[in-house]
Amino acid sequence: xxxxxxxxxRLVRAxxxxxxxxxxxxxxxxxxxxxxxxxxxxxxxxxxSGPARLVPFHLIxxxxxxxxxxxxxxxxxxLLQGSEIYLPEVVKPPxxxxxxxxxxKIKIQLANEEYKRITRNVTxxxxxxxxxxxxxxxxxxxxxxxxxxxxxxxxxVAAAFICTYLGSQYIFTEMPSRILAALIVAxxxxxxxxxxxxxxxxxxxxxx
Length: 208
What we know:
This protein is of the alpha+beta class. Helix content is 63%, strand content 6%. It is rod-shaped and about 155 Å long.
């Protein structure tokens, strides 16, 4: 925080013998403090002009109050022409090595977690090749299931026809009656099988 003023040449000349402040008859204490501040040069690396004369703000306030109370024709802003506020260089405290190491560890951990989150759904295999194989496998399984279902349907209907035809000989003596009974039973069994097949296919499509 700024607490001093870099005195310009105007203020320095005003306090010298024969300067503008000499007729003002400044209080001895105020004059002595101002002269001591102006006579003391401070080495400041942030000042391009090298050593600087630093005047505390409280002395500037005291000078301003005296000029105002005494009704002087001099104004403070005139005396401060060429002066600048002195901003000391802020010295940063050294960082704790343990804290720095902990922060670096946390940064690395967060970076690894972010990388894992981004690459969570990425596999080492070629996605297109894997997708093609998966699609081919699904098609093969679908064809295999369809073939087995059709084969079971044919076997079931044929078995129902044959069993009814052979069993109806104890009821009907005529061949057309036995064939008609076998066809009716085979049709009923076939319709039942078709109903079951449709329900199963609906369930599979629903899962997809």
